[in-house]
Structures are given as C-alpha cells and as structure tokens.
User: Fold this.
Amino acid sequence: MLKGWLVLRELLRGAAITGRHFFANMTFHTLKLFGIRAKRRGAVTIQYPEERKALSPRHRSLHRLRAREDGKPSCVACMLCVTVCPSECLSVEAAEDDDPEIQKTPARFVVDLNRCCFCGFCVEACPVDAIRMDTGEIRLAASTRAGLEISLDKR
Amino acid sequence: MSEVKMVGLTIDGRTVRAAEGTNVLQAAEQAGISIPHFCYHPAFEAEGNCRLCLVEIEGLPKLDLACSTVVREGMIVRTSTAPVLEARKDVLEFLLAEHPLDCPICDKAGECKLQDYYDRHGLFPGWFLEAKEKRQKKISIGKGLLLDRERCILCTRCVRYLRKVTGTGELGVFERGVRAEVGTYDDAPIDNNYSGNLVDICPVGAITDTDFRFKTRAWFLEKRPTVCPRCSRGCAVIVESVSGYPLEEGERRVFRIRAGENPAVNGYWICDFGRAGRRDIDEGRQERVIKSASPESELSWQKALADVMARIRSVPGPERAAKVAVILNSRMTREELTLAKRLFAEGLSLDKIFFADPKPGAADGFLLTEERVPNARGVLQAGFSPRLPDLDALAASVEVLLVFGSHLLDHFSEEAVSRALAKIPSKFLFSAHTGPLDRLAEIVFPLAVSAEKSGTYINIDGLRQSFGRAAEPAPGVVSEHEILGCLAAGLGLNVGEHDVR
Ligand code: SF4
Ligand code: SF4
Ligand code: FES
Assistant:
C-alpha cells in the first residue's frame, strides 16, 4: 500500500518537472516569437537532419587524401598512419611512381570505418600532411560492412 | 697452434682483455660497449672513412678512430666524454647536411643506422639552409639492386665487399670531393651469386632490393632465425614475415630472407639462391587436403590419414615388404628421418624405401654446394641408403605408395610417372607445393616447408644445426613429423617419441 503510494508520488513528481520545463520553454520561445526580450532563452533544439549545426573547425570527420598540384595523391605510402592507428583499420599498398622524385605512391588506401575510432592519430602521424579528417562528412552509415570500407585513393 | 697474446686496456673505466691486433672498436664491442660506426665491418679491414667512431684515447692530443686503432697494453679509452659526443654529433650533422631525408619512401627506414644514430647521438635541429646536392635517385646496378646516390654516405662497404669477399669488384667510387659517387664500371652491372648481401651491409638505404621494394615497412617484420634449406651448406638465415595487421586477418607473408651470422658456416653472407628461397615459403603452396574422389570437401589431415592407415592395414603383414613403398626426400629433418626409419623400415618392415631429391646443381666455389638439399648427411646418419625408385618395378608390384615431396619429376618425365602411378591402386602425396603429381594421387596432404618446422639438419661438413620454427604455418598445414607420428600411433607401432634424434 505504502509502496504503491510512493511510486505514484515519484511519477507525479517526474511529470511535474517535465511539465515545468515544457511550459517554461514554450513561454520563452513564444516571447521571442513576438519580439519580446526576456532574461532567459528557451532550450535550444535543432531539427536534425533538416537543420544542421556548423561543425567546429577542429572537428574530425571522414578522412581524405590531399592531392598534389598535378592531381596525383600527395600520400607517399609510408604507412606511418597504418603503424600508428590504434584500431588497426588502415590498409595501404604501395606502388611505383615513374617520377624518381616521387617513387612511392599508394596503389590502394582503404580505411575501414567499421573500426575507426576517429582519434585522428593518422593525421598527426603523416609526414607529408596527406591525410586529413576535415571533409565534414559525419553521416557515415551503410547497410553492409563492406559499405564502410572506404577507398580514399579512389574518391 | 700459436698462442694468442692478450693485452689489457681500460675502456670507459672497465678493464678489458682483448687479443693482440684487435681494434678498439671490436674490443669495446666484446666488453659490451658499442661505439657507433658506419664504415667498419668485421669482415673487412677498417678503412676509417666515416669518422663516426671517434673516441678519446689518453695520451693522444686529438680524438682517434676506434676502428683503426689497434689495442695496446695499458691503453685508456673513453667513449662517451663531452668532446666525443660533440664530435659524433658533428659527423652526423655533416652526413645529414647532404642527406635527402626521404625516410618515408626509403625501404631501409626502421633499420637504418643513420636514423638510429641520429636518434641516439644527434637530435640537433637542422639549420643547413643551402639547397642540397641533387643526384641520381634510382639507378639499376644489376641483379635487381637499385642505387640511390643521394642516400649514399660513401662508407665504401659495398665496394670493399665486392673486392674482398666475392672478388668480383663491380662497384667503385668515382670522382672526388662533393662529386664522389658509387657506381659500376662502364655500366657493367653487378653479376654474382652473392649480390643480395650488399643490401644487408649498406648501413643506409642507398642499395635496396627490388624484390622487397615498397612491399612493407621494416618495423612490421617479425624476424626469426633458421637454417637455409636450399643447399647442403646450411647457412644461417633470418626469415622476415608479417602475420595479420597490416595484412588481412589470418594472412601471413614472408617478405624477405636475410643472412644470419654463423662464423662456423657462412660468416655474414648468404647466396642469392638461398635468399630467393622466400618464394618457396609463400608461393605455389598446397593449402588443404584434397581427396581426388571428392575434391571439394573440406577434410582434416587427421581424418584423411585414417584412409592411408586403412590402406596400409589392408595389406597383410608379411606382404607389406613387397606391396607397400615410400618415397622420402633429403629435405626432411633428422628427427623426421629417424621417425621414418623406425616406422617404415623397422615397424612395417618395408624394403621399398626410396628417395627422390632435386637434381644437383653447380657449386659456385664459395658457399653454394652441388647438393640442393639440406640434409643428405642426415639421411645417411639415420641409416638409409638413398636410391631412386625403378618406376616399372614399382608399378608391377606395389599396391600402396606414399610419396613425400614432388621431386620424382626432377628425374622422370611426367608421362612416365603417371603411367607408373596409374598401375598402383592407392597412392598418397605429401607435398608442400602444388604440382603435376597432385592429380595422380588419391589424397594430397599439405606439408610445411622447413621454415615452418623445427628440427635438425646436418650440413656438408657434418655439422648438426638445430633450428626452430621461423614462420607460422597456415592452419591445416602439417609437418612430416606430425604425419609420421600419427601414422605410427594409428598403426600401433612404438617409435620411441622421445628420442627421435
Ligand atoms: S582516426 Fe584513428 S582509428 Fe581512425 S583511421 Fe585514423 S588513426 Fe585509425
Ligand atoms: S652504397 Fe651503401 S654501402 Fe655503398 S658506399 Fe654508399 S652507403 Fe656505403
Ligand atoms: S667506423 Fe671508424 S671511421 Fe667509419
């Protein structure tokens, strides 16, 4: 009996808190709508995905390989990112470039987003600043595992 | 034997005794003090051109070269005083002033002495503003070797190696001063069977091998020693492989075979033929048990071996000598051969035990021998008298044939072998590599190659050399030792598991 009453009391308390926030927010948003300045603002809610928030300049999103001036990838397939990656999700294979000043270029550069933890270590490790995580692409989802294995050299 | 005179000296406050005539660098090394050096190599005379090995010797006004100073009684050497450290730094700075710093694309990175020494003794900021000298970066100098003149530090190890060890002298230093460079004479390429050692001794990435080029990075390699199985010299080699990341999960690849050190056999060198043995480990391998009656089905070797045992058992004991035959080879380890002896000759009392080995090649007068198998002495010691089978006689009488290895084809034509095998009701092949014999056998078993086994080989001079597993075999791949042990157990024969040597 006592227990049942206690539960009911807590439920009502919860409903009261929700209701208080709802009406307070509605009041402040309505005031703003009519151009009346109040001391407080209503809670900020973004209608994602119709509405998007700007990403911070330091954000980390999907990787990309930067290109040289002539369009070749600037990656030299040194595999330092492969070495540093704590999730072991990078796979790079090197190929020969005919230019003796370049020599080494990636034949295959795959990042497995199934495993990537977006730590950005690969970006830090790169000696030629070839890999960056600034594409702004954060909506990364696929219906197959293979769909999240992304070839950066073929984009 | 002449007495070796010992002299006593002090290095870094430690009292060291070294044989007369050794240099300070060696004496320090024997005492566990390493002095950085590029040009000195224990196999040749010191040349003293890199100047990194400078040390302080009491009584001398200036720093002196450890590699070309012979030890004297009572000498006092200091290897890490402030002037020595300063000098080392300066030498490294001179070398790096002209170095391209293309470590990201250099195959030597991770095992480069210049990198290591900069890390340990340099760590100065670069303040050389002038443009670096441009040189040729990719010159083919023969036998799949590439020379990068920007990376070369002119230690002349390669030049001295080709003069003193192979005696072929294909490389020389041309021009002088800042224009000095290593090259071949009149562009006559390097052409000897020991060229791969140049890659091992070049302290930087100036000489690299196209076979290893860009395949992986040195720090991923797992390096394990073994004995080269490609001839009866039995040189010490190091098998360098990667298993798993950054390769696919479960994938294993052997990227390189390098010379190991063994003063009793090969010193510091191996031949190019042995180095190419990398391919034997990785290419054309038998991957699973294949039963010709149902080639698609997945079968474990233990299950498949039950068929072999059933066939042997179906031949009544007294008739086995005539009707069961085995063909072995001299690549099997000493332990496996003893097991084979006890199982086939003593346990099953077989008469028909044959050997089929690769055909002998030409010896080259240095390390490579004629016999292209590692354990011919082991075969004799195990009590076998190796002989080739007579195919017609085999076909006429034998009912069950076990073949280890695929070297029958080195001695008989494929046609002759298939004709003979067609007449034998049951034949089983145990082989590491795929080949034309596969389709003739009832069951094919995937065997481990010697780098995937542990055991003992006895080399051409009768030296016993035991080795451990240098690369992990793929799942399902099995050694002769396991096959023979399992056969013996299944047939109820006591082969004394514990003293098979
Ligand atoms: S962000 Fe981190 S986990 Fe993802 S690929 Fe780069 S190093 Fe690996
Ligand atoms: S190529 Fe290598 S071994 Fe030969 S001189 Fe240059 S640095 Fe020394
Ligand atoms: S090792 Fe002594 S000068 Fe090079």
User: Anything to note?
Assistant: The first helix of chain B runs from residue 24 to 30. DSSP finds 14 helices and 21 strands in chain B. The pocket of FE2/S2 (inorganic) cluster (ligand 3) is lined by residues B 37-40, 48-53, 65, 67 (CB under 6 Å).
